[in-house]
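re: that chain from earlier
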Amino acid sequence: LRLWSSLPLRPVTSKVDRQALREDVSERQAREAKWNRELQLVQRKMVKGYAAWHVFVLVLAVAVGRLQGNWKMIFWRLVKLPYFWTAFLFVWHQLGKPRQKWVVYNMPLGPPDMFLLLALLTPNVLLRPLLLMCLA
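^ sequence. v structure.
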């Protein structure tokens, strides 16, 4: 259901011009279809980028678990990631704009990348205190 604030009228009879109305509807539908195609293309590119990054994170998590010899910790690291992310965002927003810009422009990795590497490379001994700190 679409609502128009004004309908196309015929100048002579002041009745609704159905042909102009159909053209307007088809033009709007074409514009919406074009927008949906462009949106799907961007979303597909984002999914490909995120999928590549998540595969890297999972490989890194497995590698760290293998090196440290404790396979259960891989699962617990992935479970604790949202809590670490929440704490990271809290600290990130407390920094203020000038410091955020400095971090973004002067560090080789972005803040989310540094966060993930920190969460995955933290020794098992420090995971519980780190989680408690995040929940504080």
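The mean pLDDT is 77.
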